[in-house]
Specification:
GO terms for molecular function: DNA binding; DNA-binding transcription factor activity. This is GntR family transcriptional regulator. With about 325 residues, this protein is an alpha/beta fold. It folds into four domains: about 5-90, Winged helix-like DNA-binding domain superfamily/Winged helix DNA-binding domain (Arc Repressor Mutant, subunit A), CATH 1.10.10; about 90-135; about 140-215 and about 305-330, Rossmann fold, CATH 3.40.50; about 215-300. It has helices at about 20-30, 45-50, 55-70, 90-110, 115-135, 145-160, 175-185, 195-200, 215-225, 240-250, 270-275, 305-330; strands at about 70-75, 80, 140-145, 165-170, 190, 210, 215, 230-235, 260-265, 280, 295-300, 305. The strands form four sheets. A four-stranded parallel beta sheet has the order 4-3-5-6, with helices on both faces. The protein has a four-stranded parallel beta sheet with strand order 9-8-10-11, with helices on both faces. Strands 1-2 form a two-stranded antiparallel sheet. Helix 10 (about 240-250) links the parallel strand 8 and strand 9. The longest helix has 25 residues, at about 305-330. It is globular and about 70 Å long.
């Protein structure tokens, strides 16, 4: 993995899955198997892009998603490293390796008995679905507005609730019927307070929990080291999110006084961004960065679900669901 060769041909190369997902899956698999233990250095963006035959931007997005999921960490001036996470610890690693060995042995026996590969896949899938249906976990849908960000939010929530529930991301799109169907099938819906009303209109009566979001560690660190004399332009994709964005910048960069905040539709946006020494961009406002003058610093303002709200609002509900399920089993 040190030179990126191990992700040059990730699993499922002919599956039709997006290459970004395949590269990410390969890294996650190697962390789970202990091939990439906590503290291991990952290849640079350029090295991995060349080895895997993908664009550097693809690798950049993979690393950003893994970082937001808590699986890797960036060290200034050193590169990207595997983080200490539940997935990288010996217990889960040993369990994953043992399970993979058992599955490999089962597949080999099935092929030796004359079953076709597609028959083996069908058999494994049917048995897995049957077993999982016997142990139904509550389902949580994490609702957001942007795909990559919402996936990272869902991953964060999933890591905190562990195996107490399944967590799936949903990006509100142009098809409200499809959105409503997914929301209606969920046991719990988690979302931003700013879009709670919109979500509730799709599924009246659904259990919706609005939670707070806090700046990701990388964002907090970047804001903390801004030059006190710098002129800072803060740009939000949506006007209703601007107060939250500006408050976060002022909270984590209190030493900076020259802060101008605006949304993408604000008059004078181009001039403010061109005059700025630092441009802070929310998700969806990346295009505004193209207006910045050469040499200006760019900070991507990234959020994570507030762990305190997950602990205070989501986990108690899950514990209540588990207790109710036990009572149902005892009564049946």
């Amino acid at each position: 993995m040190q030179n990126g060769k191990d992700v040059a041909e990730p699993p499922g190369r002919r599956s039709g899955a997006p290459v970004r997902q395949r590269v990410r899956a390969q890294i996650v698999q190697q962390i789970a198997e202990g091939l990439l233990p906590a503290g291991a250095a990952l290849p640079s963006v350029r090295e991995l892009a060349e080895a895997a035959g993908v664009a550097p931007m693809t690798v950049t997005r993979v690393y950003a998603e893994l970082k937001e999921a808590g699986l890797v960490e960036a060290r200034a001036g050193s590169g990207t490293f595997v983080a200490d996470s539940p997935l990288s610890r010996p217990g889960p690693r040993a369990a994953a390796a043992a399970l993979r060995a058992e599955v490999d042995a089962l597949v080999n026996r099935a092929l030796s008995a004359g079953l076709r590969p597609e028959d083996v896949l069908a058999l494994l899938t049917s048995r897995a679905l049957e077993r999982l249906s016997e142990r139904k976990r509550p389902s949580i849908v994490m609702v957001g507005l942007f795909a990559a960000a919402t996936e990272s939010y869902a991953a964060r929530v999933a890591a905190q609730v562990a195996d107490a529930a399944t967590v799936a991301p949903l990006v509100l799109g142009p098809d409200p019927v499809a959105d409503a169907a997914m929301l209606g099938a969920a046991d719990l819906v988690v979302t931003f307070p700013t879009i709670q009303t919109r979500v509730a209109a799709l599924v009246p009566g659904a259990r919706i929990v609005p939670i707070r979001f806090i700046p990701a560690e990388s964002t907090r660190m970047a804001l903390a080291v801004i030059d006190p004399l710098a002129r800072v332009a803060v740009v939000s994709r949506f006007a209703d999110f601007l107060p939250v964005l500006e408050l976060g910048v002022r909270r984590f960069a209190p030493h900076v006084s020259g802060v101008t905040a605006m949304d993408m539709e604000a008059p004078g946006l181009a001039h403010a961004v061109r005059e700025a020494d630092v441009v802070v961009l929310s998700t969806g406002a990346e295009a505004a960065g193209d207006l910045a003058r050469p040499g200006a610093a760019r900070i991507e303002y990234r959020h994570i679900p507030d762990p305190g709200d997950i602990e205070r609002l989501v986990l108690p509900w899950l514990r209540g669901e588990a207790e109710a399920e036990e009572r149902r089993k005892e009564a049946s």
